[in-house]
């Protein structure tokens, strides 16, 4: 398994361009199942999760080509079941269920596993599909869904931790070809969900309330192909901003949309990080010392849970106490023990991590556990004195396109070491 070898202490300097959003492109690829026509999806990041989703679509019978950041997907003849092993291995594939069911009237997918950050239930996805008229049979780790034809209805999709991002996408896609009007209440408002809605509208779907907690979808008979560009990845942008600030660098970030992460910019400002908008790009500097800042992760437009680990890495460098509270997932502090191996002082109290920042970090071997925890360890390694080796960076490759190349272009001393 590959690892990153990082010599810390070099301020990042230069320019970086943000790739397309992983969490938008995965449901967009599922939405292509809704039409026999060809869908062209541009600005697609070359990630292992995207290549996985390509294999899943091909196992369903789709023709998929992926080159130079453009996906061409044609789901002319598809079947309602795919390669279970593939589907089981990637949670994000649950969002093929809605499109398959509404187009074919039957579908079966494997129940997605949980992961280190939480049990990742799908009860809200299933609640929405049953409300639309699906008959579900769950056995042997598979969900078999059947319908005589989905019928529009009103569905409240809020759960114990607020709205569901992929659940909203799944039900919106199912409703796009259902008979009648569907109202989704407590819909997720994340930019990635808006991207799915805009993609569906470009295919001829009728959706209003995009970006609001109430989506109204009027079913149509069929959808046509489209040519669509994915939004930039706001989580990657925030990751690079935290890295620039952690190394006291001066980085120009191209292609990000700051309106997609206003909550993060607000906290970064509070922490003493300067983010200026210059000719369509963002310039990140950290003129003085970092200051502590408290963060609570919330559904959009609150502070995103996917930036919690990266921001914590930054706060280990801010003299004082920062309280970081995780309200979306039940165990998203796997990075804490590893940050402590680099000398960070963090105590976990229930849903909160109390970060006593300000002590310099020193390099050590650390283990990545999930996608965003890996990013936090890279940020800490870039700021730490000495050498940090981040093991199991296959986690990182799921959601960051050629991260080491982008960081090296900014002057980081980082190399990928082929695993033993
Ligand atoms: C999406 O996951 C993202 N993944 C996650 O990003 C992100 O952290 C999450 O949204 C929250 O923003 C993709 O888009 C591929 P949820 P999703 O359903 O849709 C509970 C990353 O690092 N819930 O919005 O699976 C759930 O347990 C990944 O890029 C239910 O209770 O997340 C959680 O507590 C990690 N029942 C909360 O809702 C359900 O049926 C939010 O989950 C569904 C979810």
Word description of this protein:
- The chain is an alpha+beta fold.
- The chain has 2 domains: 3-17 and 232-417, Enolpyruvate transferase domain (UDP-n-acetylglucosamine1-carboxyvinyl-transferase, Chain); 25-229, Enolpyruvate transferase domain (UDP-n-acetylglucosamine1-carboxyvinyl-transferase, Chain), CATH 3.65.10.10.
- Helix content is 31%, strand content 25%.
- The chain contains 14 helices and 23 strands.
- The strands form 6 sheets. The protein has a 4-stranded mixed β-sheet with strand order 21-22-1-23. The chain has a 4-stranded mixed β-sheet with strand order 2-14-16-15. Strands 4-5-3-13 form a 4-stranded mixed β-sheet, with helices on one face.
- A hairpin with a 2-residue loop joins strand 4 (63-67) and strand 5.
- Helix 8 (234-246) runs parallel beside helix 12 (371-383).
- The protein is elongated, with a radius of gyration of 21 Å.
- It starts with a strand and ends with a strand.
- Bound molecules: ligand EPZ.
- Ligand EPZ binds next to helix 1, helix 5, helix 6 and helix 12.
Terminal residue distance: 6 Å
Number of DSSP helices?
A: 14
Mean pLDDT: 96
Number of domains: 2
Helix percentage:
25-40%
User: What's the CATH first level of the largest domain?
Assistant: Alpha Beta
Count of strand segments: 23
Strand line-up in the sheet with most strands: 21-22-1-23
* Low-pLDDT ranges: none
Q: Give the CA-based shape.
A: elongated
């Amino acid at each position: 398994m590959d690892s990153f070898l990082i010599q810390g202490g070099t301020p990042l300097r230069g320019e970086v361009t943000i790739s397309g959003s992983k969490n938008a492109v995965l449901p967009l690829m599922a939405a292509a199942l809704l039409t026999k026509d060809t869908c062209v999806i541009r600005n697609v990041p070359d990630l292992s999760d995207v290549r996985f989703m390509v294999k899943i679509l091909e196992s369903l019978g789709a023709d998929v080509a992926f080159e130079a950041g453009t996906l061409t997907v044609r789901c002319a003849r598809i079947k309602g079941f795919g390669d279970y092993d593939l589907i089981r291995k990637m949670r994000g594939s649950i969002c093929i269920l809605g499109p398959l069911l509404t187009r074919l009237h039957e579908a079966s997918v494997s129940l997605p596993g949980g992961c280190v950050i939480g049990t990742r239930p799908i009860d809200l996805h299933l609640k929405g599909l049953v409300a639309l008229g699906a008959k579900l049979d769950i056995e042997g780790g598979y969900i078999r869904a059947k319908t005589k034809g989905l019928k529009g209805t009103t569905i409240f999709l809020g759960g114990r931790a607020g709205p569901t991002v992929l659940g909203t996408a799944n039900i919106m896609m199912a409703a796009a070809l259902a008979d009648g009007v569907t109202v989704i209440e407590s819909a997720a408002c994340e930019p990635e969900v808006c991207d799915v809605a805009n993609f569906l509208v470009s295919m001829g779907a009728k959706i209003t309330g995009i970006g609001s907690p109430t989506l109204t979808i009027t079913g149509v008979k069929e959808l046509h192909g489209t040519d669509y560009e994915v939004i930039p990845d706001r989580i990657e942008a925030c990751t690079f901003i935290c890295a620039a600030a952690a190394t006291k660098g001066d980085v120009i970030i191209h292609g990000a949309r700051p309106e997609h992460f206003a909550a993060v910019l607000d906290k970064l400002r509070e922490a003493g990080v300067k983010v200026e908008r210059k000719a369509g790009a963002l310039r990140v500097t950290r003129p003085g010392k970092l200051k502590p800042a408290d963060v609570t992760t919330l559904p959009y437009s609150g502070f995103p849970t996917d930036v919690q680990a990266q921001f914590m890495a930054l706060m280990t460098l801010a003299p004082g106490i920062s309280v970081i509270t995780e309200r979306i997932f039940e165990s998203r502090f796997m990075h804490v023990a590893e940050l402590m191996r680099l000398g960070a002082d963090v105590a976990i109290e229930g849903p909160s991590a109390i970060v006593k920042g300000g002590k310099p970090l020193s390099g050590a071997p650390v283990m990545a556990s999930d996608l965003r925890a890996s990013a936090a360890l890279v940020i800490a390694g870039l700021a730490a004195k000495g050498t940090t080796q981040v093991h199991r960076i296959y986690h990182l490759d799921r959601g960051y396109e050629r991260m080491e190349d982008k960081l090296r272009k900014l002057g980081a001393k980082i190399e990928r070491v082929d695993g033993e």
